[in-house]
Design goal:
Elements lengths: L2 E6 L3 H19 L6 E6 L2 H9 L3 H18 L3 E4 L8 H7 L4 E2 L1 H11 L4 E5 L2 H5 L1 H9 L3 E3 L3 H13 L8 H16 L4 E4 L15 E3 H13 L2
Helix pairs in contact: 1-10, 3-4, 5-10, 8-9
């Protein structure tokens, strides 16, 4: 079994779901007492969130690239970044290492294309919904990407940072997300990407098919670990 390198901590909640998900995938695949071989570097998100707000992506890139290199030196066979938003600096991370990197958007695109869908709603942080580093990969794969209106994007973002990243799950927030998903459905979305690794804590099902990027990413990592 290959060693899975995880660059996490952004947030703690999503990293916990990655660890749990990988254990479930490997245990199901191999049975018995099987569990994944994991090397984890969990950073302090309190250092990174202000850098996101101030758009200091160069500093974020250098810090995460250094962490990724440490994971490689420790013996990981490949790397996953346990967050959607920080994939904005994926190119700088991959340039710093010599092991394979599973991009969360690539894994998500593959899952959607395999199901034959084309018009997709996207939920995530404002960075993910509004900037091109994530949507661009989806569009390049031939997908038509719909994002919520500006006011709804703010609601989604605020719930992520003020609640989900802190492990807080509120029924009223879940209802707001369902209302936003319904609007995307009315606009023609065939499915919705839960494009923030914490959203799956809040949205378990909807009137549209859901692509929880944490689950998709975990499955891709488990498959590679078992090759």
């Amino acid at each position: 079994m290959q060693k899975i390198g995880i660059l996490g901590g952004m947030s703690l909640q999503s990293t916990l779901h990655y660890i749990e998900g990988l254990n479930n995938e490997i245990s199901t695949a191999l049975g018995g007492l099987a569990s994944p071989r994991i090397l984890l570097s969990s950073v302090d998100f309190a250092e990174y969130e202000p850098l996101q707000r101030s758009a200091d992506w160069d500093l974020i890139a250098s810090k995460l690239a250094a962490e990724a290199k440490l994971i490689e030196v420790a013996g990981a066979d490949f790397l996953i970044l346990a967050t959607n938003t920080m994939h904005k600096v994926a190119d700088q991370i991959t340039a710093a290492i010599n092991i394979p990197f599973i991009h969360i958007a690539d894994a998500t695109c593959a899952a959607i294309k395999a199901d034959g869908l084309q018009k997709i709603g996207l939920l995530g942080t404002q960075y993910t919904m509004e900037q091109d580093f994530y949507k661009g990969k989806l569009v390049a794969a031939g997908l038509n990407v719909l994002v919520p209106a500006e006011a709804d994007r703010k609601i989604i973002n605020d719930v992520i940072f003020q609640e989900l990243c802190l492990g807080i799950v509120k029924e009223e927030s879940a209802q707001k997300y369902q209302e936003i998903i319904a609007k995307l459905q009315d606009a023609g979305a065939e499915a919705v990407i839960l494009g923030c690794t914490e959203i799956g804590m809040l949205v378990k099902k909807a009137t549209l098919p859901l692509y929880d990027t944490t689950e998709v990413h975990v499955k891709a990592a488990a498959r590679l670990a078992l090759q």
